[in-house]
């Protein structure tokens, strides 16, 4: 398993709810989390198959900003 981390603007429960279907589809439920207490709102994804590019595309598709951490 590899761990990917990104800075995002996913900063509240409503944002997490909005991005959950997309990230669950791409990474699988339980394979990602957002630290909304961090100033950078760090998204951590654990996956053997996903690339950083795929995660970026999924989060942007859900309407959020994302950049490499």
From TrEMBL:
Protein's recorded name: Copper chaperone
Secretion signal, residue range per the UniProt entry: none
Every HMA domain range: 1-67
InterPro entries membership: HMA_dom (IPR006121), HMA_dom_sf (IPR036163)
MF (Gene Ontology): metal ion binding
């Amino acid at each position: 398993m590899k761990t990917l981390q990104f800075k995002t603007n996913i900063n509240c429960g409503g944002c997490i709810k909005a991005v959950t279907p997309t990230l669950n589809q791409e990474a699988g439920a339980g394979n990602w989390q957002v630290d909304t207490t961090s100033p950078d709102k760090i998204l951590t994804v654990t996956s053997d198959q996903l690339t950083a590019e795929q995660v970026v595309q999924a989060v942007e598709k859900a309407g959020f900003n994302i950049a490499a951490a």
